[in-house]
Design a protein that fits this description.
By secondary structure, this protein is an alpha+beta fold. It contains four helices and five strands, in the order H-H-E-E-E-E-H-H-E. Helices cover about 40% and strands about 30% of the residues.
Length: about 170
């Protein structure tokens, strides 16, 4: 009787282990396909907050390829625009092309701590002679405009969104 129970127990354990292994293999071989959402540039600023650090696609015309390093483009439509940043240089020939960019949404937050740092840097730069009086006043006014906008909108920060480039495809 003990032998029968022992054989039965070994069979049950063996069967349970094989089932677990099978489930594990099934889970690792199943590939979930997630489609990258496409956002219209006209809606980019209002919807980008929902996609921070997530991959998206946007369509637009390359209005500008940055001349200082070539690692930034301005993508535009009649309804909106977005800055796209890359680790590599963009080809100047993209200017005027209609493309679909795949990238990750980035957020730059301007809050009071950021503005205090800007003020500190502005004062330091001016006192060291790295900026003239006009540059100093312009920067000071720019900081004041940020504060006024936050107060007017009753928010504690302003979000500026951009896209970290992954790839692009030309639309023909």
């Amino acid at each position: 009787m003990k032998k029968i129970l022992l054989i039965l127990a070994i069979t049950i354990v063996s069967f349970a282990c094989k089932t677990e292994q099978k489930k594990e293999i099934e889970n690792t071989t199943t590939k979930e396909v997630v489609e990258t959402p496409t956002i219209a540039l006209g809606e980019f600023d209002s919807k980008a907050g929902d996609y921070i650090n997530k991959e998206i696609k946007v369509n637009g015309i390359v209005d500008h390829v940055c001349k200082h390093g070539g690692k930034k483009i301005l993508l535009v439509t009649d309804n909106g625009d977005a800055h796209v940043f890359s680790e590599e240089r963009f080809d100047e020939a993209l200017k005027g092309s209609e493309i679909t960019v795949t990238g990750v949404v980035l957020e730059d937050r301007i809050d009071e701590a950021y503005l205090l740092k800007l003020e500190e840097d502005n004062i330091k730069s001016h006192s060291e002679g790295k900026s003239n009086e006009e540059q100093f006043k312009n920067k000071k006014n720019h900081i004041a405009e940020y504060r006024a906008k936050m107060k007017k909108d009753s928010v504690d920060h302003i979000s500026n969104y951009s896209i970290q480039y992954i790839s692009h495809k030309e639309i023909k």
